[in-house]
């Protein structure tokens, strides 16, 4: 018998390595009836559910487009758009659209409401677009 320990690979929050830390930027829908905190709490719940160990496997690659789709499905009348913006100073928008895991790693979210910003629109500054 060979024991091979598995590893968790956190993304988004403070427990993540700097290159995987990010914030979610959300534009609320014009006809939204939820408060900002309600939207943030629902997004946290959706993200955690998306990464449920019963559905997310070791070695599976994370694609932000799939997560964004899940968030939009759960909050279809409350938000207009959601993006993930890396925090590392040398990173820029788009760098975390895909995160790879080794066969002994499983990606999980270290996320709380403090990792989500409600914004009125996307700008080069809040998206961290270098150019």
Please write out the topology:
Blueprint: E1 7-12, E2 22-28, H1 36-50, E3 62-63, H2 64-74, E4 79-86, E5 98-99, E6 105-110, E7 116-119
Helix pairs in contact: 1-2
Features:
131 residues; alpha/beta; two-stranded parallel sheet
Description:
This protein is α/β, with parallel strands linked by helices and 131 residues long. The chain has two helices and seven strands; from the N terminus they run ββαβαββββ. It has helices at residues 36-50, 64-74; strands spanning 7-12, 22-28, 62-63, 79-86, 98-99, 105-110, 116-119. The strands form three sheets. It has a three-stranded mixed β-sheet, covered by helices on one side. The protein has a two-stranded parallel sheet with strand order 1-6. α1 packs across α2. The protein is globular, with a radius of gyration of 15 Å. It starts with 6 loop residues before the first strand and ends in a 12-residue tail after the last strand.
Distance between the termini: 53 Å
Strand arrangement, major sheet: 4-2-7
Sheet/helix structural class: alpha/beta
- Helix-strand sequence: EEHEHEEEE
Low-confidence stretches: none
Shape: globular
Instruction: Give me the Rg, rounded.
Output: 15 Å
The proportion of strand residues reads 25-35%
- Sheet with the most strands? 3 strands, mixed
Number of helices: 2
Number of distinct beta strands = 7
Summed over residues and divided by their number, the pLDDT gives a mean of: 90
Helix content: 10-25%
């Amino acid at each position: 018998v060979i024991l091979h320990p598995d590893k968790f690979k956190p993304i988004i929050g403070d427990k993540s390595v700097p290159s995987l830390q990010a914030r979610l930027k959300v534009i609320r829908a014009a006809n939204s009836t939820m408060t900002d905190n309600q939207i943030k709490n629902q997004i946290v719940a959706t993200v955690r559910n998306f990464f449920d160990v019963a559905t997310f496997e070791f070695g599976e690659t994370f694609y932000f487009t799939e997560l964004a789709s899940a968030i939009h499905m759960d909050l279809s009348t409350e938000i207009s758009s959601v993006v993930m913006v890396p925090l590392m100073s040398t990173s820029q928008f788009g760098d975390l659209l895909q995160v790879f895991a080794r066969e002994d790693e499983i990606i999980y979210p270290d996320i709380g409401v403090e990792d989500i910003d409600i914004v009125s629109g996307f700008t080069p500054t809040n998206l961290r677009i270098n150019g």
